[in-house]
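Researcher: Quick test of sequence recovery. Tokens follow.
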């Protein structure tokens, strides 16, 4: 039976303000608060809220036949908390239906997986903790920023405990293979891979309102019929896109929401179900390994990381930023950590791209890639000086030794935490067994109480009988005494 895995990304960049060279060392606040509030409020009104209301309606009207997954970046959630909390409330309402899954991803929506494993792991753990705080369940499936993936990243994801990972069904990786199966990482066979169907996803997210497109207009029954016509053995159809596609990329006037609302019933008629990523990872077996030695993503025709690291400016900014990654992690300063999250966001590097793209790129305040690079490097210069000021007398060799010690301690703490969890589970098991035994004892004890009461009654009866006998013995003695006195008196006479 075919099943559709529908996933939406929710992420919003924290916009940087115009920052001059002469601001370095004097101004440590890097953000355009007005632009951040304006953009997130606009997207929430035009896209997020109408789309989420439609998805909730789809779940309720279909009798929970419809299911969907979301991935929220940590920085995106922070923007929603500040400027559009109603979006998070609506997501919690969706979560209460039991038909929604929330995925893990890097907190900053950054590129740490490409350069620093420790930073990447820490970010994913932070975002997973925030998701659990909001929605009550820890994510078991990982989705990296922009679906970035390689064999090495898959191995790390498996080591972090994830059962599955989402990525792009790129042609140069798949070759003759189909994206409609479950695959696994060759370095970690227990990590299952779900691959995005590029054409079916882009038909909705990019081409839906394009009147010059051959498939225009696209109707729900046509879309589902196309899925149903796929070979019987191709059962997994992964449709991944940004939530902003519903309302921003494809305006509401295009009837995009009506299209989605019709999908559950059309799919039901064709015997096509909906599943969350974790359900697929749990139920479906891998058909084989997928070798991805070089990093891929879901951006541009190349499906690689060149949109962020394709020119010397981007690579210089990227390497400069992550040159202080270890120092930031050691410092663990709240203000530094927050700036670190916002400066890592992949959008900052995409503004510097010189590549042509079939998807329109809004550079915001920047007039060119060079303008974006200059502004970012000014901010980065101030940020790095603040980080270095926390360890002014520590050279790189000393820092490396310190990092090694910290890492060893973290590993030891992690081992002890696992041991504590194991022992706690053992204690809980023993306590359950004891509780069970205690639950049986009262029934047995009630049977034994009756003889105890009888014994008590018997002892009481014996006590009374003994007292009676004693009394009887005492009475004759008194009688004998009176008889003796009478005899003595008579003899005296």
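Model:
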């Amino acid at each position: 039976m075919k099943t559709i895995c529908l996933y939406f990304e929710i992420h919003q960049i924290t916009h940087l303000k115009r920052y001059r060279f002469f601001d370095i060392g004097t101004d440590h606040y890097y953000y355009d608060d007005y632009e951040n509030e304006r953009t997130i409020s606009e997207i929430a009104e035009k896209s997020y809220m109408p789309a989420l209301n439609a998805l909730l309606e789809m779940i309720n009207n279909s009798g929970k036949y419809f299911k969907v997954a979301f991935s929220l970046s940590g920085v995106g959630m922070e923007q929603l908390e500040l400027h559009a909390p109603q979006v998070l409330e609506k997501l919690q309402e969706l979560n209460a239906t039991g038909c929604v899954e929330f995925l893990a991803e890097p907190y900053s929506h950054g590129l740490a997986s490409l350069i620093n494993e420790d930073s990447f792991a820490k970010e994913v753990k932070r975002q997973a903790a925030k998701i659990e705080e909001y929605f009550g369940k820890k994510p078991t499936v990982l989705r990296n920023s922009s679906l970035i993936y390689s064999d090495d990243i898959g191995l790390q994801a498996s080591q972090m405990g994830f059962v599955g990972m989402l990525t792009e069904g790129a042609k140069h990786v798949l070759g003759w293979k189909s994206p409609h199966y479950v695959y696994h990482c060759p370095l970690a066979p227990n990590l299952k891979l779900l691959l995005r169907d590029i054409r079916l996803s882009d038909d909705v997210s990019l081409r839906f309102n394009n009147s010059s497109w051959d498939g225009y207009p696209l109707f729900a029954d046509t879309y589902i019929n196309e899925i149903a016509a796929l070979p019987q053995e191709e059962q997994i159809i992964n449709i991944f896109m940004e939530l902003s596609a519903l309302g921003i990329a494809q305006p509401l006037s295009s009837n995009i929401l009506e299209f989605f609302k019709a999908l559950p019933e059309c799919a039901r008629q064709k015997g096509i179900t909906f599943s969350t990523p974790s359900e697929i990872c749990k139920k479906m077996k891998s058909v084989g390994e997928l070798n991805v030695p070089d990093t891929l993503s879901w951006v541009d025709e190349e499906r690689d990381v060149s949109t962020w690291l394709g020119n010397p400016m981007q690579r210089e900014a990227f390497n400069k930023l992550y040159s202080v990654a270890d120092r930031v992690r050691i410092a663990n300063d709240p203000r530094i950590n927050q700036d670190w999250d916002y400066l890592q966001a992949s959008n900052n590097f995409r503004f510097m791209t010189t590549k042509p793209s079939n998807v329109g790129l809004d550079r915001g305040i920047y007039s060119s890639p060079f303008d974006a690079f200059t502004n970012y490097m000014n901010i980065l210069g101030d940020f790095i000086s603040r980080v270095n000021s926390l360890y002014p007398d520590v050279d790189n060799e000393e820092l490396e030794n310190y990092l090694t010690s910290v890492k060893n301690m973290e590993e030891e703490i992690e081992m002890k935490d696992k041991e504590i969890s194991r022992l706690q589970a053992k204690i809980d098991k023993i306590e359950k067994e004891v509780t069970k035994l205690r639950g049986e004892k009262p029934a047995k004890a009630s049977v034994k109480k009756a003889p105890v009461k009888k014994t008590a009654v018997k002892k009481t009866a014996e006590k009374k009988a003994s007292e009676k006998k004693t009394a009887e013995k005492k009475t004759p003695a008194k009688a004998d005494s009176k008889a003796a006195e009478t005899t003595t008196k008579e003899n005296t006479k």
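The first helix runs from residue 33 to 61.
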